[in-house]
Amino acid sequence: MTTAAAVALVAALTVGWDLGWWAAGVRPLSPRQVERLEGAWLVDVRTPGEFAWRHVPGAENLPGGRGLTAAAAAHPKDRPVVVICFSGHRSPFAALRLRRAGFRRVYNLTGGMAGYLAWKALSR
Questions:
Q1: Active site residue 33
Q2: Low-confidence spans in the chain with pLDDT less than 50
């Protein structure tokens, strides 16, 4: 496989991934948009160790989405929810659970915590 073909394949898979979640009602949100989103419930589904290392200020750690249903009961369904993992590939599964639970404004942090940290470093 040529380099160009490999790049095209990765791009197609990435776009397909996001479009699939979009169709399910989980919208991507950039780190900048997360910072500007007021009143959001930030759900971090990474392990406790990953969360302790770094996390978005104000995020609640629910590793692997455990306890998500109970935690969701404490929040109004019209409150925006941003779900966070390390790379943006674990969080959509928890985000979909929240959509199915009736939350209307559910977002996945694009690029996950890795993207958030890169954005913070570049925006200094």
A1: no
A2: 7, 9-15, 17
Q: Please write the tens of the pLDDT for every residue from 71-83.
A: 999 999 999 999 9
End-to-end CA distance of the chain: 39
Alpha-carbon 72 to chain mean position: 16
Residue 45 belongs to domain spanning: 3-122
The Cα 30–Cα 119 span in angstroms is 9
Q: Helices in the chain by DSSP H: which ranges?
A: 3-23, 31-36, 48-53, 68-72, 91-100, 112-122
Q: Among the options 72, 81, 85, 98, which is catalytic?
A: 85
Q: How many structural domains comprise the chain?
A: 1
Q: Could you give the C-alpha distances from 89 to 8, 79, 93, 112, in angstroms and in order?
A: 20, 23, 8, 8
Look up the CATH number of the domain holding residue 13: 3.40.250.10
